[in-house]
Design goal:
The complex is a heterodimer of chains A (about 375) and B (about 140). Chain A contains 13 helices and eleven strands. Chain A is an alpha/beta fold and about 375 residues long. In chain A, the strands form two sheets. Chain A has a nine-stranded mixed beta sheet, sandwiched between helices. In chain A, strands 5-6 form a two-stranded antiparallel ribbon. In chain A, a hairpin with a 4-residue loop joins β10 and β11. By secondary structure, chain B is mostly beta strands. Chain B has one helix and eight strands, in the order αββββββββ. In chain B, strands 6-5-4-7-8 form a five-stranded antiparallel beta sheet. Chain B has a three-stranded antiparallel beta sheet with strand order 2-1-3. In chain B, β7 and β8 form a beta hairpin. Chain B is globular. Classes of the chains: A alpha/beta (about 375), B mainly beta (about 140).
Chain lengths: ~375, ~140
C-alpha cells in the first residue's frame, strides 16, 4: 500500500561510540534520544510515539518523561529499527500519533546494565541448536556460507574482499572504530573464529546507540534539518533457527522485505544512489545484493571485487565502514539507518556526491528477520 | 566434572516423544496424514498445511552434509579442540543441526554432501543427542 509520506526530522547517535564504561544501556538510549531531540529542536513533551527493541518502550518512555499515545516494542533483532520506522510511518498516517522517537542502545562491549546472554533450554533453539555448540552469532550466522560458496562459486578471498573494501570506507570516517587499511591476506590470516570465518570477517563488539524522530512530511518542512523522506518500506521474518532456513544460499526474509519496499517506493534498482546492507559478517552484503535484486544470483562477489561498491563505484555500499569496521553494539540496524539519513542530508563523512535515494536493509537474528527502508531527500 | 553446566535440551510436551526416541536409539520424525509432508522440529500439527493429524515414524538415520562451521571459540563442554557445528539434510527431507563425529574436524575431511548416519550420544540420564558420522560402506 502506498502511504502518505513521512519524514525523518531528527537523527543522532550517542555522544560517544566504542567503549563507554560510564553509561548503562538505558543511559545510552537517553543520550541518543536527547541528541536526536536537539537535532529536531524538540523536547520529550513534543514526542507522542515511542519504539525501541531490547529495552521495553515502557522503560524508554518513562525514563525520558514521554507520555505516548502509541508504543511499539517489536524486537526481532538488529533490523527491529527498520520495522519501527515502517510501523511508525503507518501509525503517523493513521493518526495514532504525530511525532515518533525510535531509539537503540547497547552496552555490547562494557555490558553496563546489559541483559545476560543465554537461551531457555526448553525453547526451540535451546533444544535443537544450543546442545550442538552454538554460543553466539559467530557460530550461528556463519553456518550457511559454505553451502553458498559451493553453489555459487564464491571464494574465501571474495569474503575477505568485503571486509577490505569496507575498511576503505571506514578510513574516511573519524568515528569509525577501525580505520587502518587492511589487505585480503590480513583478513585471511587473522585469528580463526569459526571456519571459514576469521576475526576480520566478523563485526565489532562496541557500545553505543542512535535515535530517529519521524513526523508527517507536511510538518517536516518546519523543522531545522533538511527532511529525509521515506519512499518505501518492507519487512518479513523467516525462522528463529538458522538450521531451519529454507535455503542456505538466499534469505526469504530479505527477498520479501526488499520487494515490498521497492514496490511501495515505485523505484528501479538503477535509481538507487547509496546502499546500506547490515553486515554482521562478511557474507551478508553478498546475500543482500542478490536477494534485494541489485545483481543476479551468484554475481555479488564479482560485483564487489570489481569495486562497484567501493569509493568511486556506481553503488556505494556501507559507506560508514559497516558493522565490520564502523561499530556494532549488537543491533546494528540503527547505524545503517543513521548513515542513510546522513547521506540524504549531505553531511556524511564519506558523502556520495549528489545522492538522492538511499536504501537501508537490515537483518535480525540469524537471517531470522528483515526490514528495508528506502529514503529520499526529495519530497515524493 | 567441569563446573560449566552443559546446556542440554529440556523437552516440552510437543517434543518429549522425539527426545524419548533419541534415548531409545531411534530418530523420530513426523509426517502429515493430509499432505504427506515430513517436517522437523517436532510439533503436533503440520507446518505446511496446518493439518492436525500427523504420524510419528522412525527415520532411516541417513543424511548428507548440507553446511557447517568449525568452531574455534571456547565451549567447555566440547573440550579445547575446534569442533564442527553442522546442518544435515535427512534422507526424509528435513534438516537438523548436529555435530559430525568420528571424523577429523577439518575442512578437508568435512566435505559438503558427504553421506552420514545418525549416532546417539548419551549426555545425561534423560537426554541423548543425535549426532552424525560418516556413513560406512
Amino acid at each position: 500500500m502506498k502511504q502518505k509520506s513521512v519524514a525523518v526530522v531528527g537523527a543522532a547517535e550517542t555522544t560517544q561510540m566504542g567503549k563507554i564504561p560510564n553509561q548503562s544501556v538505558i543511559g545510552l538510549h537517553a543520550d541518543a534520544a536527547l541528541n536526536a531531540m536537539r537535532d529536531a529542536g524538540l523536547t520529550a513533551k513534543d514526542i507522542d510515539g515511542v519504539a525501541t527493541a531490547g529495552e521495553s518502550p515502557v522503560e524508554l518512555a518513562h525514563y525520558l518523561g514521554i507520555t505516548p499515545t502509541w508504543a511499539d516494542g517489536t524486537s526481532v533483532g538488529g533490523c527491529s529499527f527498520m520495522l519501527h520506522v515502517r510501523h511508525a510511518a503507518a501509525a503517523i498516517n493513521a493518526g495514532l500519533c504525530n511525532t515518533v522517537l525510535i531509539t537503540h542502545a547497547e552496552s555490547g562491549k562494557s555490558r553496563v546494565g546489559a541483559r545476560k546472554f543465554g537461551r531457555d533450554p526448553a525453547s526451540q533453539m535451546g533444544q535443537f541448536e544450543v546442545p550442538f555448540g552454538v554460543t553466539s552469532p559467530p557460530t550461528m550466522f556463519t553456518i550457511p556460507v559454505l553451502r553458498y560458496m559451493k553453489e555459487v562459486g564464491v571464494t574465501l578471498e571474495d569474503l575477505a574482499t568485503v571486509a577490505v573494501i569496507q575498511r576503505e570506507w571506514a578510513a574516511k570516517n573519524p568515528r569509525a572504530s577501525y580505520r587502518d587499511p587492511i589487505t585480503v591476506d590480513d583478513v585471511l590470516n587473522s585469528s580463526m573464529i569459526a571456519w571459514p570465518f576469521t576475526k576480520l570477517m566478523c563485526c565489532l563488539v562496541t557500545d553505543g546507540g542512535g535515535a530517529l524522530i519521524l513526523t508527517s512530511a507536511e510538518r517536516a518542512k518546519d523543522f531545522p534539518q533538511k527532511p529525509v523522506y521515506i519512499l518505501g518500506t518492507g519487512e518479513s521474518v523467516e525462522t528463529p533457527l538458522i538450521s531451519q532456513m529454507a535455503d542456505f544460499t538466499t534469505s526469504k526474509a530479505f527477498r520479501v522485505s526488499g520487494k515490498k519496499a521497492f514496490d511501495e517506493a515505485g523505484i528501479k534498482h538503477a535509481d538507487v544512489d547509496h546502499l546500506m546492507i547490515y553486515d554482521a559478517f562478511a557474507h551478508l552484503p553478498l546475500y543482500g545484493l542478490e536477494d534485494l535484486g541489485f545483481v543476479k544470483r551468484g554475481e555479488a562477489a564479482a560485483f564487489i571485487r570489481e569495486r562497484n561498491t567501493a569509493i568511486g563505484g556506481k553503488l556505494p555500499l556501507n559507506t560508514n565502514g559497516g558493522g565490520l569496521s564502523y561499530m556494532h553494539s549488537g543491533m546494528y540496524g540503527m547505524y545503517a539507518l543513521q548513515e542513510s539519513v546522513r547521506q540524504m542530508r549531505g553531511i556524511a563523512p564519506a558523502q556520495v556526491p549528489g545522492a538522492k535515494i538511499s536504501v537501508a536493509h537490515g537483518v535480525g537474528g540469524m537471517f531470522a528477520a528483515s526490514g528495508t527502508i528506502i529514503f529520499s531527500n526529495e519530497a515524493p | 566434572m567441569a563446573e560449566y553446566p552443559r546446556p542440554l535440551p529440556v523437552p516440552t510436551p510437543e517434543t518429549q516423544a522425539f527426545w524419548d526416541g533419541c534415548l531409545a536409539g531411534e530418530l523420530l520424525l513426523q509426517k502429515c496424514d493430509a499432505c504427506a509432508r515430513t517436517y522437523f522440529p517436532p510439533r503436533d500439527f503440520c507446518p505446511a498445511c496446518s493439518g492436525r493429524k500427523v504420524t510419528t515414524f522412525k527415520a532411516s538415520g541417513k543424511a548428507t552434509l548440507y553446511s557447517y562451521v568449525i568452531n574455534h571459540r571456547p565451549r567447555p563442554d566440547f573440550g579445547t579442540e575446534p569442533h564442527s557445528i553442522a546442518v544435515v539434510t535427512l534422507a526424509e527431507g528435513p534438516r537438523m543441526m548436529t555435530n559430525i563425529i568420528d571424523c577429523p574436524q577439518t575442512p578437508e575431511a568435512l566435505q559438503l554432501d558427504m553421506t552420514l548416519e545418525v549416532s546417539f550420544e548419551k549426555a545425561s540420564e534423560t537426554i541423548a543427542l543425535p549426532k552424525f558420522r560418516p556413513a560406512k560402506g
